[in-house]
Amino acid sequence: MPGGRNLHQISRIMALLNDLIHKAAAKKAIFLDLDNTLYSYEPCHQAGLKAAFQYYRRSVEGISWRNFLSRYHAARHVIHKMLRRQAASHSRLLYFQALLEARFGRTQCQHTLKLESIYWNAFLRRMKLFPWVRPFLRHCKGQGQKVLLVTNLTLDIQLRKIHRLGLNGLIDFLVTSEEAGLEKPHSAIFKLALRKAKCSSRKVLAVGDDPRSDRMPSADFFQV
């Protein structure tokens, strides 16, 4: 029954919210991951890729979806290998530049810019905040706790995501791997976040979907 499923979903959300609030008690700061923690990443990524593919097939060359994905992943692998542990290793602009250069033997300025723009516009349109996020952040603000987003990727797109999700007034600081110079789980990004929060790691609750990158030394961790 749809009503039964809805009640079950609401019950799960409330249980998660209560667990988070309990875990956050007595903490001075909350360090939240962004991607796949506050919203579901994969549907947004797929929407971006499909929109970019439609442009590529229409304006660059008529290839299959499978062929496009193969070229995209090959370009992504090249960039990841070249820029390991740096924020730019996630740059869709670099991925599409590499994809087009591998195919045509030269930089395709207009198509590179267009593909990146189309990808992110479709990605952002698909984003939807998880139901527990806003109540939890409002609770933290009411308790006087600092709320920081600590995230891998570049500042520009993460700011756009925050704006799209309507979180502007609910966070105190954004800390990106671009600003810190190295990606999570490297200590550099967490040290920068601690300086902004002005507290020790023992007074922090870190919240994320991936313990391998979102967990920080000496801080409590909550996996969502």
Summary of the model, kept short:
The chain has helices at residues 2-24, 41-59, 65-82, 92-104, 109-126, 133-142, 155-165, 177-180, 187-197, 211-214, and strands spanning 29-32, 146-151, 173-176, 204-208, 220-223. Strands 3-2-1-4-5 form a 5-stranded parallel β-sheet, with helices on both faces. It contains 10 helices and 5 strands, in the order αβαααααβαβααβαβ.
> Could you give the order of the helices and strands?
HEHHHHHEHEHHEHE
Percent strand: 5-15%
Query: Averaged pLDDT, please?
Result: 96
Number of domains: 2
Reported CATH architecture of the largest domain: 3-Layer(aba) Sandwich
Structural overview:
The protein is of the alpha/beta class and 224 residues long. It has 2 domains: 23-39 and 129-223, HAD superfamily/HAD-like (Rossmann fold), CATH 3.40.50.1000; 42-126. The protein contains 10 helices and 5 strands; from the N terminus they run αβαααααβαβααβαβ. The chain has a 5-stranded parallel beta sheet with strand order 3-2-1-4-5, sandwiched between helices. The longest helix is centred in the N-terminal third of the chain and has 23 residues, at 2-24.
Q: What are its keywords?
A:
224 residues; alpha/beta; Rossmann fold; five-stranded parallel β-sheet; 10 helices; 5 strands; 58% helix; globular
Q: Which helices and strands occur, and which strands form pairs?
A:
Blueprint: H1 2-24, E1 29-32, H2 41-59, H3 65-82, H4 92-104, H5 109-126, H6 133-142, E2 146-151, H7 155-165, E3 173-176, H8 177-180, H9 187-197, E4 204-208, H10 211-214, E5 220-223
Parallel strand pairs: 1-2, 1-4, 2-3, 4-5
